[in-house]
Design goal:
Helix content: 25-40%
Shape: globular
Strand content: 25-35%
Strand order of the largest sheet: 1-2-3-4-5
Number of strands: 8
Order of helices and strands: EEHHHEEEHEHEEH
Length: 190
């Protein structure tokens, strides 16, 4: 993992995508428990290889080189890696959600069905939020979650995001949550 961007989150680390992650990402996004809530991530292995190689890795490099001013950057896609085994068990990303009014940077995530209900997703989201608020010019983060996605709604709430409204995107209702840097700062200095 030399020369790769990493955020240490305790039992897991967040690490920028590598070409070697393609099979793990493909397997994860082929799980019905994942693509039910993130249908845009469902792909063939060949599509996934193309996306990781030609879009996601270069986008990560551009994002990381722009820090602290990431206002013009779209996505940072990080794998959730189990420290004990080095296994790729999920992802936690930040990007621009064009369907939202500015500021429209969001947090999105997924975890393998084999690693749910262990707190890893909450660790990942908290780790990425902390990094963004401490190292970039981000002042507000969004999370968009389908109401029926009970687990993701719980993760977002545990990470101190505040529900603000229902929003319709592509004929589906979502809950929109926000987290402001100043509120996060206050909560994390108590």
């Amino acid at each position: 993992m030399e020369n790769l961007f990493i955020i240490d989150c305790g039992e897991i680390v967040l690490r920028e995508f590598r070409v070697e992650d393609v099979d793990a990402i493909y397997e994860l996004t082929s799980q019905p428990e994942v693509y039910e809530f993130l249908p845009d991530w469902h792909s063939t292995r060949e599509q996934r290889l193309n996306w990781v190689t030609n879009y996601e890795i270069p986008s990560n490099k551009e994002f990381l080189s722009a820090i602290p001013d990431i206002s013009e950057q779209n996505y940072l896609k990080l794998g959730i890696i189990l420290k004990e085994t080095g296994e790729f068990i999920g992802f936690c990303n930040t990007g621009i959600k064009e369907e939202l009014n500015e500021p429209n940077r969001e947090i999105a995530f997924a975890i393998s069905k084999y690693y749910r209900n262990r707190g890893y997703t909450t660790m990942a989201v908290k780790g990425l939020v902390k990094y963004l608020f401490e190292n970039t010019n981000v002042e507000l983060l969004n999370a968009i979650v389908l109401p029926r996605n009970v687990s993701s709604n719980k993760v977002i709430q545990k990470c101190d995001f505040r529900y603000i409204r229902k929003i319709e995107i592509e004929d589906q209702q979502y809950f929109q949550y926000i987290l402001q840097k100043e509120k996060w700062r206050v909560q994390n200095t108590l």
